[in-house]
Amino acid sequence: MTGVIAIVDYGSGNLRSAAKAFERVVDEQGLGLTVMVTADAAVVARADRIVLPGVGAFADCKAGLAALPGMIETLTEQVLVRARPFFGICVGMQLLATTGHEHGDHAGLGWIAGEVVPLAVESQGLKVPHMGWNQLVADRAGHPLLAGLDSEAHAYFVHSYHMVCAAPAHRLAHVDYGGPIAAMVGRDNIVGTQFHPEKSQATGLAVIANFLRWTP
Questions:
Q1: CATH superfamily of 3-213
Q2: Per the count of CB atoms within 10 A, which of 41, 51, 69, 200 is most buried?
Q3: Cβ proximity of 145 and 207 under 8 Å
Q4: pTM of the prediction?
């Protein structure tokens, strides 16, 4: 297996730890892929797989992405037209939604219909942000990115907002935090995780490995 994994640098996200996690999987699996952290749309246009990390507020992340010349147009071409495998992480996943409601109403990329809304769990005695390890529950157990994960798989979360998919089939996995909260979403060649795979130890590395071998 050869090719380039482009991790988009738009001024948001734990880029170095994400890149290190992908590099570790590439090395351990002997995949022969090249991991590139880039803010250059031309590099993304040549990439075989694309990763969009994200930490912070929805609107700030969308603005940072829009500020990169040609990046949103290139992402749209590569992902929606050329069907390159795409992986959004945390706010990078939330940006897939139609609208985000963090500090106002803000348009997302609209690749997976849905809304990003506040966690409303304080009345149940739960804290916001949701921070820490939670058990993943598969909604679509046969999805390739969930392959090999057992029923006890846990992942690491840090977030105050969550994505609600318009189509239930687009929620691939959830966690129970005052009710079901989307942990993984996806359709076609697109997938996103609310959890941080780069911080989720064996579970996260397994999900990354599944993504790198995925041929949607």
A1: Class I glutamine amidotransferase (GATase) domain (3.40.50.880)
A2: 51
A3: yes
A4: 0.96
